[in-house]
Amino acid sequence: MNILITGGTGFIGRALAQNLAKQGYEVTVLSRNPDTVEKICGHGIKALDSLDKLKPEDTYPVIINLAGAPIFDVRWSDARKKVIRDSRINLTNQLVACMAAMIVKPVLLISGSAIGYYGEHGDTVLTEQSATYTDFSGQLCADWEAEAKKAELLGVRVCIIRTGLVLGDSGGLLQRMLLPFRLGLGGRLGNGQQWMSWIHREDWIAIANKMITNASMQGAYNATAPNPVTNSEFTKALADGLKRPALLPVPACLLKLLLGEMSALVLGSQRVLPERLLAEGFKFQYNDLSSALTEVLSHE
User: Fold this and answer.
1) pTM higher than 0.85
2) Which residues of the chain have pLDDT under 70?
C-alpha cells in the first residue's frame, strides 16, 4: 500500500516513515528538498517535491499530513504567525484539493493538530470533548482541523491527532532542554504548576498505525500519555534521569519578556487525557514519564 506523508522529514515524520517502510508500505515523503529525503528518512523512501506533481491517476490509500513551520523556533511576530498558519492551513487546503482530483480517493487522511487546541485550563482535566480556546494556538489548531475535515465530503475517513509534548531522541523540545540540564542549569518554568501532557514518539507512531489498520477510528484523538505531569514534576524527572540538580527556576516574567506571546507554550497548562484511545483499548508502551525519559536518554 502506498502512503504519502507531508512533513515526513520532521522529528515525528521521519521516524514514522521509517516505521511504515519497515512494515512493507511504500512511503513517499513531500519535501522541498527531495534529494535529502532518503538520507533523513531511510533507503527506499520516495520523495515528492510539490503537491502540484500529484496526478489524478496517482493512488495513495493513506495520506498523513504533518507539515507545518516550526512553532517554537522564532518569536511570534505577525509575519511569523502568518507563516505558521499558512504552512498548515493553506497546505492542508491544497492537499484536500489534490485528493478531490484523484480518480481513486484515499481511504484515510491522518492530519496533525496539537493540544494547544484547548488553551490554558489550569488543573481542569481535558478530553476530546473539551472546547477549543481562542488564543493564537487554539484558533490555529481549530482552523487546521477544519481544513482536514473537508476531506470527509470526499468520502475519506479523517483522523485528527492532537499531539502533546513528544519525547524521543535526536530532536524535539526535549533535545533543547538537555544541554542546560546537563550543565546543572535546568529548573522549573514559572511556578512549575502548569500541566505538561507528553507522549513518547514510539507511542505516537503506534497510534498512527492503529488508525491505519482500524477502520472504525475517526475524528479527533488526544495523542498524550495517560499520566500528565506538572512542569515541576517533569523538571525533577529529567534532572534525576541525567543525575544533575535542577536549581535554577526561570521566572514567568522573564519568559514573557523573552518569548512574548509564545511564552504561552511553556507557561500554559493543559492537563490532557487520551480518553478516546483508552476507550478503544489502545495500550501505551510508555505510561509514566520516568520510563519514557529513561528510554530516550539511553540514546543520548
Assistant:
1) yes
2) none
